Amino acid sequence: MGSEITVDALDRRQLWGKQLDKAAFGLTFAFFLSAFVSKAAMNSLGALMLLVGLVSIVVNRDKVLSKHPFVMLFLIPLGVGTVAAIFSEIGGLPAVGEFLNRLKFFFLPLVLASVVKDEKRLWWLCGAVFFSGVVASFIGLSEPFQRNYGHFTGMHEIGRNADMLMIALLGLLVCLGAGSFRKKLERWQVGVVACVAGLFFWGMMMSGIRGAWVGFAVGLGCYSVFFNRKFLIIIGVLVVVACSIGPTGRVIDEVKSIGDTTSNASNLARLQLWKTGVDFSKGHLLFGSGSDRGKVRAQFKEFYKAQPEVYQKKYHWSIQYPGHFHNSYIQLFVEGGLLFFGAFIACGTLLMIRLVRALSVIPIEFKAYTQAAIVAASGFLATQFFHSELYSYGGALLMLFLSAGLLPLGWDEKKDGHDQVV
């Protein structure tokens, strides 16, 4: 009698486990399907996805961290930052809540490690991202104003949309350049992927966002030098195409302005913001200012007013954007403090090392995903020296690509116990 009850309870647990796994994957799919379309949907679906994903891990007794130890490299900075937030300038539980909300997408790899059990599911999630980007791009194209150079925003802010198009584009190009990946597709499918890549490239260039261009150049250069020298020819073609987009000579002028630190107002403003951000951080170096945007803005204004008149005149641009430093790394350093930032940089470095080492052991049929992770991350992280998207909605795509590069190492060769229903 007792054994029957035990078996029945086990059967119910397995049944609930399967349903929770499917629900968690469905929410994850919906989350990425809304990536280019709606911040509100990403927020609500993200919260549900995390909740259901954690319950699924517990019910299924999923040993996520043992199968995919790289997940700890995302969780450790979150843990250190949580402790630091308690002692930050804002302090207490409110500061912890603001910090975790700021870095909420850093929990994504934990859920992805649980729900992405094979290549099929990975394809569904990546397909959702690309489809979302196509939909948002066509909606942008339908608006005459967005068809003007420098105004293409899709359905997000212009800088965010450009960064997201850039990282998605790098992932697509790496996969197109990998023969092992192309073999998995029919010819017409390769054509569709190429057309999507072309659309994303056009959208990124039409945005006029130079930071995204820099990230794209870094990522594509990384791929061409380390993985596929033939892509040096593709770079030449893309340069010619890029120069033909928009008003004559406009792209060339924008590229030339990237290194202008004497007359370009945007560049000068960023340099001033970076300098004042570092100066501002010295008042709360170890534990940071906290992540409440309104309070950080107020703190910065007080800091600025306390500076000598000479300092204020020299860095006058900084008060135009109080508390917003247009650099993800300085922003995280200021808000999280040295303790958190040190853990963040250390774990990020270890993650990239793990990706590079994975290239020598990952099965050949999955190697394109690891290459795409390295290339996309290189481009996106380079962009974040000029933007503040690392911990925002564009960062969610980075979490997907980084996870995709390492998840195959933990996939079972045999079919997993769960039904692979999507």
UniProtKB/TrEMBL annotation:
<feature type="transmembrane region" description="Helical">
    <location>
        <begin position="211"/>
        <end position="227"/>
    </location>
</feature>
<dbReference type="Pfam" id="PF04932">
    <property type="entry name" value="Wzy_C"/>
</dbReference>
<feature type="transmembrane region" description="Helical">
    <location>
        <begin position="162"/>
        <end position="181"/>
    </location>
</feature>
<feature type="domain" description="O-antigen ligase-related">
    <location>
        <begin position="197"/>
        <end position="343"/>
    </location>
</feature>
<feature type="transmembrane region" description="Helical">
    <location>
        <begin position="123"/>
        <end position="142"/>
    </location>
</feature>
<feature type="transmembrane region" description="Helical">
    <location>
        <begin position="393"/>
        <end position="411"/>
    </location>
</feature>
<feature type="transmembrane region" description="Helical">
    <location>
        <begin position="337"/>
        <end position="356"/>
    </location>
</feature>
<keyword id="KW-1133">Transmembrane helix</keyword>
<keyword id="KW-0472">Membrane</keyword>
<feature type="transmembrane region" description="Helical">
    <location>
        <begin position="43"/>
        <end position="59"/>
    </location>
</feature>
<feature type="transmembrane region" description="Helical">
    <location>
        <begin position="99"/>
        <end position="116"/>
    </location>
</feature>
<dbReference type="InterPro" id="IPR007016">
    <property type="entry name" value="O-antigen_ligase-rel_domated"/>
</dbReference>
<protein>
    <recommendedName>
        <fullName>O-antigen ligase-related domain-containing protein</fullName>
    </recommendedName>
</protein>
<feature type="transmembrane region" description="Helical">
    <location>
        <begin position="71"/>
        <end position="93"/>
    </location>
</feature>
<feature type="transmembrane region" description="Helical">
    <location>
        <begin position="188"/>
        <end position="205"/>
    </location>
</feature>
<feature type="transmembrane region" description="Helical">
    <location>
        <begin position="368"/>
        <end position="387"/>
    </location>
</feature>
<feature type="transmembrane region" description="Helical">
    <location>
        <begin position="232"/>
        <end position="252"/>
    </location>
</feature>
<keyword id="KW-0812">Transmembrane</keyword>
<dbReference type="InterPro" id="IPR051533">
    <property type="entry name" value="WaaL-like"/>
</dbReference>
